[in-house]
């Protein structure tokens, strides 16, 4: 319904939800604004009064940002009265600004100039508060604050981090963090949303400040994608002197302008002194010692620099020799979920056609392999059925085994927002998480007992006939078997097993089942388990039972970890599958691809990540090419993995730094960082997005794609260097799911969701509304039995140890621990325990502890975390000096082949004081 | 090149975190607060009451207690801090800081009390009681017995240093008439079948100050879908106004009767009474009266009594809604109006105490009589709070349209001895100042607007030839500066700058006028819009005394 009214003498039409400000802007009239930020999630607040307009017949002026037109209204956006009132706003605010405006390019300064508001005729009246430089990334100078509240809305209503407030009143109002703490000592998670929103420079990224003002202006701005997690935030790199001086969020479909601490402040690792800029070759006779992994200096001493010709020749020759002497299956490659789709595609093609083996895998094996296995089995497709932004349409959101406020921070903002707007949020996790504050149901279940909990929920739904009978009948099969199975799992019987009161299970099950729309999101708490596939089967069945798939606000969403783990998997970095999940054992398709590639393909599925490590240990695998992965940190039982890697006859590592894995290499090839390259990536939402090079490569570092091609040529493949766009085109030709998606389209649109029905059709966010990509179009309901974790706590190892990431550090830390801000925020390893556990053990937070499992021991500081249950410990795996994976259990899920990172039996004791 | 950008610039090495980000939650504080607020539901709208209890129990609110409140109410850490620091009656202090002096005296320094020597009283008290905390505070609704102060929740009128230093034993106030008494006088009987038309016939307007026709509010709320609320605004804070206090002291059941009548008329299931904290002495009697109403089954829905915490702005109806909901008292933008989107987002009828006071009379046969009661061509009756230089300050029932001269002469006993009328404030601090030569204008809604003034809450403050008008204007602008909520620029910064400009030896007339216009045009609510009325009045009507 449109509204007709008169704006500056013209009859105009407004949509029902449009404000006067929006109508004026749409028609080309720029109305000054300070407290209004025309960006997603920013509610207009109408407090600054810079945008006043005159509505005929009204006694006072109206704030156009918040006022909506009414039929027949007559509005003037200018005139003496309006101009005087607006200018007065700026003059009043200017009176208390520092002499040099903190941000001369900011909104406030821009309108001060436009309105010619200087000088202010008013006397200054405020004591200028001192600058707060307590945060490593952001400088707070409230002498420039105009109390517009944008930072408060940024923090509380956009990112939902709930740190910033406006305290006191009248002329005394001031922005505060928590109860008036310094920003750096507050609960701030440094998403930087407030900095991006601030119109005056009262909040600035410290990286651009000199003498208290924004002093560094970018030479250019490059639109790209964040290289950290699977959310796929679009961002702008602001570049000067070949350096990223600031990062701001773009209005991408997955982030709508938001970023987290890593994406905003985590890019100076590029220029870290450790960055490899010339190829390295192991010195003759220098032994590969697993201990070198923890001592980069000693590791470096075993290498010499080489030129590319020598390094590439040596790298290829070593691999070639093994292929000739021991056969293709003695070789393996780990590609990277951190590179582009094009790199992933070429990498697997190189391994399959150049090495001649399917032994190619990547970290998907360590994160969501179980989810993918269950999804393929249940619904015939391994990707999400809905983006996490479907939370906006969901009446109930079920998050289990995921900690998105730490691991997918921007996705978490959408979940928190949905809950704030009234959606039921069911959070199930053994640990308390940042979502708990927004949750309507909190199910703290016993670690490893997901199946008991989920079967109990399904029991309630079936027993109370809350399932969607029509949907089940029309779209699924094997319901009777599932119903009969879950009948044996009443919540009361499961309560002692999963630890959740039966009443809570019932309430959560009812809430989810009776919601009009329900969305399930999960993380590695589901997948990284010996029964990970079973866990995921339960979630798939739960959604299907309730008919919560295929409609807006419904779906299954395994939150993908790495920025391109979806794309790398799609592109075929999987040992048993060609691009687009065609099984290597599918003869017809294999022949089709074989013809396309002009090369024979092995019909034998390759080994997975952990299997490759086993095979290396057994000397069945003798040569490897590892690009941008770090198994010497990321694999379970990493002491064993390091030993395996050290046993290789020949290892080529392509990376930015001399990683723990590179420390055991024969040849190390200096690669390109994400902001240095062009390429596409695919996020957790199935959105193919364009990354663009913002910086030149340092010294002799090379594009990864160039390195892959050079190695391929030296292994006898007739490859040519081609523009990335052509690689994309070839890749897409092997992947029906990318139909109608071209390089140019991704470049033009920034993001394209697959599948899409045509070159001009938007992609399908929500899939499988009509049928599933299975033989009969139906989804399978697969029952899951209770399986114990691979090792249960006992007297010798009484704690459950779980591992994961933390907000500031990415994966094995090779990038983030070299980013100054991130390192300053989280400088050292710690083991988190409940305060009550610490008290029971007589340990003060900060004391050094020795954590031991059947695999090994590490020593690190104790951290109190009220979110942890008693008898459970959490250790992030980013720290080389206390590598959590020394402790983890390499037992695998039988279907997904994913190791049990989330559950080890551990012993915790005070560490002996370190020798002086 | 910029130092911060160089690679060499290492960030200060921070220690690894050993606990969650931010302040640690103090277990002891949690226990203390939990015990202090035990019976309260943990709903956000109880936060202000919870803050009161912590303040009362510990003599101040420490940050660790705020953190505990946040945890117990499941609110962000910052929220209780924001709310507590907004309200004047909460003393937020650091954990290690000593509580302020146990004996706190808040001395009213609003205009009527200032005329009666509030500043000397403050100085005197500070000298006489060096260990007490003596604070200047805004209007306490005792302008007719100025100067007033509140010493430890006890209102002291006609205050002197002696009466505070060595208080005479006070006879407890006689309890107000009870339910039976009001019933005996015709109260709580069924109303006529068509209350809306009676209300229209009576021409009753909102007597909180805005004068909006009560019948139109009823029509708006009545046609909304439920659930609906009725809110009683008992937060009169306009300096010079004390009529609502008088109503609640004189006959609380008359007000509650009006409340239940209005609630029934518009279909409101729940009533909320927001009583200003300055009227703490009325809290218990009112609570008792409400209990009587509930016990007698006179109202089926809930009746909630909430107290403010020292914020004039919460008398603004939408700020009041925010405050009931447990937040800072920031006025809301209109539209939407509370009649459509009000308390907790539901349609809400908001009435001032005095508006309700007249309802039983109007709806039980007195509509025509009420309408006939006016004077000088005006209709209706009003309770006018008269203070300042008159012989008999107090609340007087006057016919609408009576002039200032008439009210002073007929109801207030004439001017005080030795004073002759120089000027008057027709509507408290915000209604502007008119000269004696304009004291024959009928006082009613709409009669003074052309002069830049209004009758507002009906607070007639009378100034004499012995009063310093510029100082009166300064006093009033300081009041608005102190009571501005701080939400919008024109009011937050404008009142502050205006107060500074008025302190200058010579007033910058053009700048003050420009500022006044911008504040009137651009402020969100009536506070900022009217804050410069006294200054405008002086510039317009008393140019000779403007410095």
Strand order of the largest sheet of chain B: 12-11-15-13-14
| Structural class designation of chain A | alpha/beta
Number of strands of chain A: 41
Instruction: Please state the average pLDDT score of chain B.
Output: 95
Strand order of the largest sheet of chain A: 16-15-29-28-27-17-18
* Main sheet summary of chain B: 5 strands, mixed
Helix content of chain B: 25-40%
| β-strand amount of chain A | 15-25%
Q: Give the mean pLDDT of chain A.
A: 96
Residues in helices of chain A, as a percent range: 25-40%
CATH level-3 fold name of the largest domain in chain B: Rossmann fold
- Sheet with most strands of chain A: 7 strands, mixed
CATH homologous superfamily classification of the largest domain in chain B = NADH-ubiquinone oxidoreductase 51kDa subunit
**What is Rg of chain B?**
24 Å
Question: Which structural class best describes the helix and strand composition of chain B?
Answer: alpha/beta
In short:
With 916 residues, chain A is of the alpha/beta class. Chain A contains 30 helices and 41 strands.
Structure description:
The complex is a heterodimer of chains A (916) and B (547). Chain A has 916 residues and is α/β, with parallel strands linked by helices. In chain A, helix 9 crosses helix 27, helix 14 packs antiparallel against helix 17 and helix 17 crosses helix 18. With 547 residues, chain B is α/β, with parallel strands linked by helices. Helix content of chain B is 39%, strand content 13%. In chain B, the strands form four sheets. Chain B has a five-stranded mixed beta sheet with strand order 12-11-15-13-14, with helices on both faces. The radius of gyration of chain B is 24 Å and the shape is globular. In chain B, a hairpin with a 2-residue loop joins strand 5 and strand 6. In chain B, 56% of the residues are buried. Chain B folds into five domains: 67 residues, Arc Repressor Mutant, subunit A; 62 residues, Glutaredoxin (3-Layer(aba) Sandwich); 174 residues, 3-Layer(aba) Sandwich (Rossmann fold), CATH 3.40.50.11540; 84 residues, Ubiquitin-like (UB roll) (Roll), CATH 3.10.20; 77 residues, de novo design (two linked rop proteins) (Up-down Bundle). Chain B has 21 helices and 15 strands. Chains A and B meet through helix 2, strand 7, strand 10, helix 29 and strand 37 of A and helix 3, helix 4, helix 17, helix 18 and helix 19 of B.
């Amino acid at each position: 319904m449109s509204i007709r009214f008169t704006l500056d003498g013209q009859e105009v039409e407004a949509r029902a939800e449009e404000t006067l400000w929006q109508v004026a802007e749409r028609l080309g009239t720029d109305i000054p604004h300070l407290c209004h930020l025309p960006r997603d999630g920013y509610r207009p607040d109408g407090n600054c009064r810079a945008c006043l307009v005159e509505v005929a017949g009204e006694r006072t002026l109206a704030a156009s940002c918040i006022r909506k037109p009414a039929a027949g209204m007559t509005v003037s956006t200018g005139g003496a009265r309006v101009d005087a009132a607006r200018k007065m706003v700026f003059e009043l605010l200017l009176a208390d600004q520092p002499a040099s405006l903190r941000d001369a390019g900011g909104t406030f300064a821009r309108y001060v100039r436009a309105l010619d508001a200087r000088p202010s005729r008013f006397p200054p009246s405020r004591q200028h508060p001192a600058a707060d430089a307590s945060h490593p990334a952001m400088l707070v100078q409230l002498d420039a604050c105009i109390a517009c509240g944008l930072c408060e809305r940024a923090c509380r209503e956009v990112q939902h981090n709930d740190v910033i407030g406006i305290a006191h009143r009248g002329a005394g109002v001031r922005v505060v963090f928590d109860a008036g703490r310094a920003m750096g000592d507050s609960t701030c998670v440094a998403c930087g949303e407030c900095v991006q929103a601030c119109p005056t420079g009262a909040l600035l990224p410290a990286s651009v400040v000199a003498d208290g003002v924004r002093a560094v202006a970018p030479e250019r701005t490059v639109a790209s994608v964040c290289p950290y997690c699977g959310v796929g935030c679009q961002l702008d790199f602001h570049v000067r002197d070949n350096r990223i001086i600031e990062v701001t969020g773009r209005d991408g479909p997955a982030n709508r302008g938001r970023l987290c601490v890593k994406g905003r402040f985590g890019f100076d690792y590029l220029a870290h002194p450790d960055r490899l800029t010339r190829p390295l070759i192991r010195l003759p006779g220098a032994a590969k010692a697993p201990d070198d992994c923890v001592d980069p200096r000693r590791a470096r001493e075993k290498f010499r620099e080489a030129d590319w010709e020598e390094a590439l020749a040596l790298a290829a020759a070593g691999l070639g020799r093994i292929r000739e002497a021991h056969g293709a299956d003695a070789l393996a490659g780990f590609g990277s979920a951190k590179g582009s789709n094009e790199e992933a595609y070429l990498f697997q093609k190189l391994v399959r056609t150049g090495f001649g083996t399917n032994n190619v895998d990547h970290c998907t094996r360590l994160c969501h392999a179980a989810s993918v296995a269950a999804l393929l089995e249940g619904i015939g497709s391994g990707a999400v059925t809905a983006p996490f932004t479907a939370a906006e349409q969901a009446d109930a959101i079920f998050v289990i085994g995921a900690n998105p406020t730490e691991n997918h921070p921007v996705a978490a903002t959408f979940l928190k927002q949905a809950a704030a707007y009234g959606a039921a949020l069911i959070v199930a996790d053994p640990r308390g998480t940042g979502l708990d504050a927004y949750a309507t149901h909190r199910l703290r279940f016993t670690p490893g007992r997901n199946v008991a909990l989920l079967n109990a929920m399904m029991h309630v739904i079936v027993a109370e006939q809350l399932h969607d009978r029509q949907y089940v009948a029309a779209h699924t099969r094997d319901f009777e078997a599932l119903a009969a199975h879950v009948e044996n799992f009443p919540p009361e019987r499961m309560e002692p097993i999963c630890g959740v009161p039966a009443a809570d299970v019932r309430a959560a099950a009812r809430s989810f089942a009776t919601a009009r729309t329900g969305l399930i999101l999960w993380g590695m708490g589901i997948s990284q388990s010996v029964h990970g596939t079973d866990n995921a089967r339960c979630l798939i069945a739960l959604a299907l039972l309730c008919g919560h798939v295929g409609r807006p606000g419904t779906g299954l969403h395994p939150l993908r970890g790495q920025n391109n783990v979806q794309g790398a998997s799609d592109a075929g970095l999987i040992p048993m599958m060609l691009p687009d999940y065609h099984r290597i054992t599918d003869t017809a398709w294999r022949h089709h691809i074989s013809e396309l590639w002009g090369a024979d393909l092995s019909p034998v599925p390759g080994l997975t990540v952990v299997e490759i490590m086993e095979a290396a240990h057994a000397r069945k695998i003798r040569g490897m090419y590892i690009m941008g992965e770090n198994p010497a940190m990321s694999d379970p039982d990493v002491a064993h993995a390091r030993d395996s890697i050290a046993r290789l006859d020949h290892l080529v590592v392509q990376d930015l730094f001399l990683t723990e894995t590179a420390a055991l290499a024969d040849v190390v090839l200096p690669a390109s960082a994400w902001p240095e390259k062009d390429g596409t990536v695919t996020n957790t939402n199935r959105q193919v997005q364009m990354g663009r090079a913002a910086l030149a490569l340092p010294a002799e570092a090379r594009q990864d794609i160039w390195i892959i091609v050079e190695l391929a040529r030296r292994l006898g493949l007739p490859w040519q260097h081609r523009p990335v766009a052509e690689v994309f085109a070839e890749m897409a030709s092997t992947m029906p799911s990318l139909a109608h998606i071209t390089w140019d389209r991704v470049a033009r649109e920034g993001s394209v969701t697959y599948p899409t029905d045509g070159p001009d059709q938007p992609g399908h966010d929500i899939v499988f509304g009509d049928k599933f990509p299975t033989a009969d179009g139906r989804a399978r309901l697969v029952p899951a039995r209770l399986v114990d974790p691979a090792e249960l706590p006992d007297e010798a190892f009484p704690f459950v140890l779980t591992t994961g990431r933390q907000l500031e550090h990415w994966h094995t830390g090779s990038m983030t621990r070299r980013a100054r801000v991130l390192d300053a925020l989280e400088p050292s390893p710690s083991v988190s325990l409940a305060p009550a556990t610490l008290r029971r053990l007589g340990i003060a937070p900060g004391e050094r502890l020795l954590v031991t499992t059947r695999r090994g021991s590490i020593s690190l500081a104790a951290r109190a975390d009220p979110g942890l249950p008693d008898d459970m410990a959490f250790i992030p795996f980013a720290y080389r000096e206390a590598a959590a994976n020394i402790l983890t259990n390499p037992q695998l899920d039988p279907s997904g082949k994913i190791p049990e990172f989330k559950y080890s039996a551990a012993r915790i004791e005070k560490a002996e004081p370190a020798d002086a | 090149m910029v130092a911060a950008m160089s690679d060499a610039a290492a960030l200060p090495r921070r220690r690894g975190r050993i606990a969650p980000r931010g302040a640690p939650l103090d277990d002891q504080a949690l226990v203390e607060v939990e015990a202090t607020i035990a019976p309260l539901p943990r709903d956000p709208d109880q936060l202000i009451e919870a803050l009161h209890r912590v303040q009362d129990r510990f003599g101040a609110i420490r940050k660790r207690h705020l953190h505990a409140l946040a945890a117990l109410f499941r609110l962000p850490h910052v929220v209780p801090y924001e709310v507590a620091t907004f309200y004047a009656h909460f003393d937020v202090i650091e954990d290690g800081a000593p509580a302020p002096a146990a004996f706190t005296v808040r001395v009213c320094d609003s205009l009527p009390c200032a005329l009666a020597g509030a500043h000397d009283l403050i100085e005197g008290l500070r000298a006489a009681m060096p260990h007490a905390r003596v604070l200047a505070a805004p209007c306490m609704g005792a302008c007719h017995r100025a100067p007033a102060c509140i010493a430890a929740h006890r209102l002291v009128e006609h205050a002197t240093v002696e009466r505070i230093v060595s208080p005479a034993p006070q006879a407890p106030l006689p309890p107000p008439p009870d339910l039976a008494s009001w019933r005996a006088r015709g109260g709580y009987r069924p109303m006529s079948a068509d209350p809306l038309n009676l209300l229209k016939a009576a021409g009753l307007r909102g007597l909180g100050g805005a004068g909006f026709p009560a019948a139109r509010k009823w029509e708006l709320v009545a046609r909304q879908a439920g659930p609906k609320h009725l809110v009683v605004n008992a937060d009169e804070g306009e300096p010079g106004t004390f009529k609502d206090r008088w109503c609640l002291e004189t006959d609380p059941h008359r007000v509650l009767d009006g409340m239940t009548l209005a609630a029934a008329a518009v279909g409101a299931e729940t009533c909320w009474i927001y009583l200003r904290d300055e009227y703490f002495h009325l809290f218990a009697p009112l609570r008792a009266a409400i209990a009587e109403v509930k016990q007698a089954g006179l109202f089926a829905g809930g009746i909630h009594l909430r107290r403010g915490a020292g914020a004039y702005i919460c008398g603004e109806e939408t700020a009041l809604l925010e405050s009931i909901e447990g937040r800072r008292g920031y006025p809301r933008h209109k539209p939407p109006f509370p009649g459509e989107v009000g308390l907790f987002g539901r349609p809400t009828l908001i009435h001032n105490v005095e508006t309700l006071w007249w309802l039983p009379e109007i709806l039980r046969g007195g509509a025509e009589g009420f309408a006939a009661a006016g004077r000088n061509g005006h209709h209706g009756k009003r309770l006018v709070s008269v203070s300042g230089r008159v012989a008999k300050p107090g609340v007087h029932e006057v016919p609408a349209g009576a002039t200032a001269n008439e009210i002073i002469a007929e109801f207030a006993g004439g001017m005080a001895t030795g004073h002759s009328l120089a000027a008057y404030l027709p509507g408290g601090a915000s209604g502007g100042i008119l000269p004696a030569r304009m004291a024959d204008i009928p006082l009613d809604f709409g009669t003074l607007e052309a002069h830049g003034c209004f009758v507002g809450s009906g607070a007639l403050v009378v100034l004499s030839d012995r009063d310093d008008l510029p100082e009166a204007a300064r006093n009033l602008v300081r009041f608005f500066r102190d009571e501005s909520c701080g939400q919008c620029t024109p009011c937050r910064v404008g009142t502050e700058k205006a107060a500074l400009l008025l302190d200058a030896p010579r007033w910058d007339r053009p700048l003050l006028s420009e500022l006044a216009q911008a504040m009137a045009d651009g402020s969100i609510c009536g506070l900022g819009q009217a804050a410069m009325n006294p200054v405008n009045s002086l510039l317009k009507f008393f140019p000779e005394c403007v410095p």
